[in-house]
UniProtKB/TrEMBL annotation:
<dbReference type="InterPro" id="IPR031107">
    <property type="entry name" value="Small_HSP"/>
</dbReference>
<comment type="similarity">
    <text>Belongs to the small heat shock protein (HSP20) family.</text>
</comment>
<feature type="domain" description="SHSP">
    <location>
        <begin position="24"/>
        <end position="136"/>
    </location>
</feature>
<dbReference type="InterPro" id="IPR008978">
    <property type="entry name" value="HSP20-like_chaperone"/>
</dbReference>
<dbReference type="Pfam" id="PF00011">
    <property type="entry name" value="HSP20"/>
</dbReference>
<protein>
    <submittedName>
        <fullName>Hsp20/alpha crystallin family protein</fullName>
    </submittedName>
</protein>
<dbReference type="InterPro" id="IPR002068">
    <property type="entry name" value="A-crystallin/Hsp20_dom"/>
</dbReference>
Length: 144
């Protein structure tokens, strides 16, 4: 139902984790996701803990789904001295090519407990259907 657009994205994510660099708007980090079919709906879930809903942007252009999010640093008082900072900050993004069999006009998005869940219905034209056979007059004769 979807195709990966960049085979090296996972390598970039691992390098960013090891080097401690954060994503920027020009080179965002990858956000982890799961994708599965649940009946007549395709579900995509993105892990975005600590991101507020106003910092999430979802776009669909033709069959290209783009999700961008930004985890901003929490404002701290001047007297606070950071001892350890392992939670990644910055911009996260994911682009997914959706199949033509999905109805991109009716995507639903929910955000709960740090997980952004998109539900994309399977298009009616892609669902299996029975074809009825009409009672015809038999084979047609070709006249010369």
């Amino acid at each position: 139902m979807l195709m990966r657009t960049d085979p090296f994205r996972e390598m970039d994510r691992i390098v960013q984790q090891l080097s401690g660099t954060s994503g920027t708007w020009s080179k965002p980090s990858v956000m982890p996701m799961d994708a599965y079919r649940e009946g007549d709906v395709y579900v995509i879930a993105f892990d975005l803990p600590g991101v507020s809903t106003d910092a999430i942007d979802i776009d669909v252009e033709r069959n290209m789904l783009t999700v961008k999010a930004e985890r901003r640093p929490v404002a701290k008082a001047d007297s606070v001295k950071m001892e350890l900072s392992e939670r990644p900050l910055g911009v996260f993004s994911r682009q997914i090519v959706l199949a033509d069999t999905l109805d991109t006009e009716h995507i639903e998005a929910d955000y709960d407990a740090g997980v952004l869940t998109l539900r994309i219905p399977i298009a009616e034209r892609a669902k299996p259907r029975k074809i009825s056979i009409g009672a015809g007059a038999g084979p047609k004769q070709i006249s010369a």
